[in-house]
Specification:
The protein is an alpha+beta fold. The chain has helices at residues 16-38, 85-94, 140-164, 181-187, 193-197, 204-214, 218-238, 245-251; strands at residues 40-42, 48-50, 67-70, 76-80, 102-110, 123-131. It has two domains: 22-142, Bira Bifunctional Protein, Domain 2 (BirA Bifunctional Protein, domain 2, 2-Layer Sandwich); 177-263, 434 Repressor (Amino-terminal Domain), CATH 1.10.260. Helix 6 crosses helix 7. The radius of gyration is 20 Å and the shape is globular.
């Protein structure tokens, strides 16, 4: 299914040549910002792995990997990676990373069964990272600190992008709010789980009620919804399409809620 939408009358802020320059700028700037924010080191990641290695992540269990044989090594079966979730943990061990530091990589993949929209593609090109932490770091405070560090790296990149390309007007909010889905359910038991966990389902009437209930304007609700969508995209990029286990635990047992909004 393809639900990719281009707004009517949309015009890119940059010409084709400058757009490519801007993409290069974003990728080079962000990796530096992320590296220093989380104490990471860059490593090279595989495009494919041995099918029998167990390193390819099967995501939701229904996606079919792109496979091929490799005659030069006895006809071994190769699979293009879906994500690097398993490989990263092995790499941390093999490369001798220690608590407090970690790795990042520019991950490329092919997901033939991906549902396509504005932030999902058959071809995957995303940053991926993993870090060694101690048992003492497995707590909500450390998780929130990490999330704020990532958001800070994204915002620093955005600020630098606007300085380098003034035609780009996007601005991001550095403030991050956290709320668990259990808290959301307690506050708004009348909303169905689908609307609490997927704000895109909210219609204009629901948005007006939410705005009135928390003393905001509808424009504020829409702005926070947009920030949430961006944060979701960020989460997918850094977790190979899955929310990290620690974050799932913090966000509650019943799904993901909207940070900073009471639903």
């Amino acid at each position: 299914m393809n639900t990719c939408l281009i707004p009517q009358g949309y015009r890119p802020p940059l010409c084709g040549y400058d757009m490519q320059r801007a993409i290069e700028f974003v990728k080079s700037s962000f990796q530096e910002n992320l590296k220093f924010a989380l104490n990471l080191r860059r490593v090279s990641a595989p495009l494919f792995v041995d099918r029998d290695s167990g390193l390819n992540d099967n995501l939701n269990g229904v996606e079919r990997p792109v496979g091929f044989d490799i005659p030069a090594i006895g006809g071994a079966a190769g699979e293009v990676v879906h994500s690097l979730a398993k490989w990263k943990r092995l790499a941390l061990k093999r490369y001798g990373f220690y608590p407090g530091n970690g790795l990042y990589t520019d991950m490329n993949a092919i997901r033939r069964d991906e549902s396509l929209d504005n932030i999902h593609s058959v071809y995957v090109d995303q940053w991926d990272w993993e870090k060694v932490i101690t048992r003492a770091d497995r707590n909500v405070d450390f998780l929130q600190y990490t999330v704020r560090s990532i958001v800070g790296a994204v915002c620093d990149t955005c600020d630098a992008l606007r300085r380098a390309f003034p035609q780009v007007k996007i601005r991001l909010d550095r403030e991050v709010s956290f709320i668990t889905t259990q808290e959301l359910e307690d506050m708004y038991p009348h909303l169905p789980p689908q609307e609490r966990e997927n704000p895109s389902l909210l219609n204009s009437s629901r948005k007006k009620r939410i705005a009135a209930g928390c003393g905001l304007q509808v424009v504020d609700v829409n702005r926070l919804l947009k920030q949430f969508e961006m944060l979701q995209a960020l989460t997918r990029q850094f977790s190979g399409g899955k929310m990290p286990k620690n974050m799932r635990k913090m966000m509650g047992k019943k799904g993901r809620g909207m940070p900073g909004m009471p639903f």
